[in-house]
Amino acid sequence: MGVLAKNIWRSVFPMLFLGTSLVFAQEEYRLSINTDVSYQTMDNFGAAACWFGEGIGKYWPTTKKEEIAKLLFSKESDSSGNPEGIGLSAWRFNIGAGTFEQGEQSGISDFRKRVECFQNPDGTYDWSKQSGYMWLVQKAKEYGVEKLIAFSNSPPVQFTKNSLGFKTEKDKKTNLKEDKFDDFAEFLATVIDHFEEQGIHFDYVSPVNEPQWDWFGEVGKAKQEGSPWSNEDISRLTKLLNANLADRNLDTKILLSESAQLNFLYDGYGTAAEQVSSLYSPKSSLYVGDLTHVAPVVAGHSYFTDTPDTTMINIRQKVQNVTESNEIDFWQSEYSMLANGFREGEEGKRTAMDCALFLAKVIHFDLTVANASAWQFWNSLEPGSPDFDTRYYFIALDPNEEHTDGGFYPVKTLWAMGHYSYFVKPGMKRIDVSSGLQPEEEAQNLMVSAYLDPTNEALTMILVNYSEEEAKVALDGKQWKNYKYYKHYLTNADENINLDKQDEGAMPEQIALPKRSISTLMLQKTDEI
Predict the structure, then answer these.
(1) What's the CA gap between 428 and 339, in Å, rounded?
(2) What is the number of other CB atoms lying within 10 angstroms of the CB of residue 529?
(3) For 433, which of 90, 171, 385, 404 is 20 to 30 Å away at the CA?
(4) How far, in Å, are 74, 145, 425, 459, 486 from residue 455 at the CA level?
């Protein structure tokens, strides 16, 4: 079908309705930008390596774990101009609660999900603990990862009501003993202070995680460390932690509140509801926004808010509204495809590329609708298939029984993240770009976002072609004429095309985007990048 015929067909039948999704019979888009209209300033793209990172850092052969670190942290490119890794700009480290030392008595079934604690039950400290995790933190530092974030899932077991790292009562009350709030705050500050002295600066400390969940488990069947928290608990703990950090002259900021779902930031759920207004509104009795060590940021998790497309978009618009009205930034601090939304109504396994595209979709709407200034993934490393249902990880592991060695396989989700983390650097500003589609239409067709580097006015564009057809994009408007040179990086279903450089040179009139693919375009006003 010729271009004229396609245009006529589109004018008569502009879209097809498939289920609840809008699927356009369109393969050509004219993109317009306005660099005078900017939104959030990007802070970081990050990830964690909980549970399995300890064994890798502590026991795996050096050559293997060094290659894993390169895949996650490297900002360099190879001789062909292809990225060596995804250049993460943030790394998340879990301060453990001591369930590892308890062994089987911890009640956590998988030994790999039990975590050591720096503080012994007698109050002394053993800084040799968590050495595998700290190996990865050190590697992140060596590779120049810009932000290090320490977070806690549970207080140390010696501070909890049941002496365990999870709840055994379904009352949704914190597992921290009433008289141990001061001790927990001091413990967190002591950990941050120790590593500061060792030359490892944690930019943020996150004291609570997913406070809305009850973290209930049966002894012997529990999955991980965790504790619920009320907004009152969080406010109390934050004030104590703020004082402890100040007493040590640390400039580490407190990151709150790692809300379990994005809608809990503005909506009701138990004792940790409407967290933005509860913790960041000066009218609230629980207000912590004026504390010197509290970052003007609220963190939430995108789990269970990713389907259908209309719901995903509407929730993120509400997040944007509530954070903007309270004059704070939003960080998406944890996501993987826990629920089955990534299957989009299809039964059976989803390919690695399908998972990568769905991940890119969630990132896109978190950035363009919720205005997230940071986006962080859970979890970098987990056992699983490299080919299907790669929903939880960037690198699929095939470990031995003791998790002291094994195979590892970078998967398409790694490279999907890399389109953002490698190219969108801290300090870039997201700017206005339009394909003419509404967000609900973008979600099944073409998603595009653009980021301006204020130091040299270079432009980075990320384009996700979600459709089964090749898409052609033309760059429209006067501002495009300022850009003379471009590079195109691509990830698609081909097992050998992973964030690979495709083209570079003078700006073309039109760029082809393969079906079911993710592209990054780097545009420069000079003749070279």
Answers:
(1) 32
(2) 13
(3) 90
(4) 22, 20, 11, 11, 17
Burial of 91 from C-beta contacts in 10 A (0-12 / 13-18 / 19+): buried
pTM of the model: 0.94
* Range 38-68 burial, b when 16+ CB lie within 10 A, else e: bbbebbbbbbbbbbbbbbbbbbbeeeebebb
DSSP string for 105-174? GG-BS-GGG----SB-TTS-B-TTTTHHHHHHHHHHHHTT-SEEEEEESS--GGGBTTSSSSBSSTT---
The label of the residue with tokens 């308890």 reads 102
Alpha helix locations (H) across 38-93?
52-59, 62-73
Contact 410, 446 (CB under 8 A): no
CA distances from 263 to 154, 159, 283, 316 (A): 23, 31, 21, 8
- Cis ω before 496 (30° cut-off from 0): no
Report the Cα–Cα distance between both ends of the chain, in Å, rounded. Answer: 37
Nearest to 436 by CA among 446, 451, 423: 446
* Cβ atoms < 10 Å from Cβ of 107: 19
Query: Which run of H or E residues covers position 241?
Result: helix 231-247
Q: Residue 127 — φ and ψ, nearest 5°?
A: -85, 5
> At residue 62, what are phi and psi to the nearest 5 degrees?
-55, -45
Q: How far is the C-alpha of 299 from the C-alpha of 262, rounded, in Å?
A: 9
Q: What is the DSSP letter of 42?
A: P
Cβ contact 391:416 at 8 Å: no
Secondary structure (3-state) at 61? coil
Q: What is the DSSP pairing of strand 44-48 with strand 372-377?
A: parallel
DSSP β-bridge partners for residue 207:
none
106 and 114 Cβ atoms separated by less than 8 Å:
yes
Cβ(164)–Cβ(101) below 8 Å: no
Task: Give the pLDDT of the chain (529 residues) as one tens digit per residue.
Answer: 333 333 323 333 344 333 344 445 457 999 999 999 999 999 999 999 999 999 999 999 999 999 999 999 999 999 999 999 999 999 999 999 999 999 999 999 999 999 999 999 999 999 999 999 999 999 999 999 999 999 999 999 999 999 999 999 999 899 999 999 999 999 999 999 999 999 999 999 999 999 999 999 999 999 999 999 999 999 999 999 999 999 999 999 999 999 999 999 999 889 999 999 999 999 999 999 999 999 999 999 999 999 999 999 999 999 999 999 999 999 999 999 999 999 999 899 999 999 999 999 999 999 999 999 999 999 999 999 999 999 999 999 999 999 999 999 999 999 999 999 999 999 999 999 999 999 999 999 999 999 999 999 999 999 999 999 999 999 888 888 889 999 999 999 999 999 999 999 999 989 999 999 999 999 999 865 5
Q: Which two tokens stand for residue 378?
A: 């859970």
How deeply is 243 buried, as exposed, middle or buried, from its count of CB atoms within 10 A (0-12, 13-18, 19+)? middle
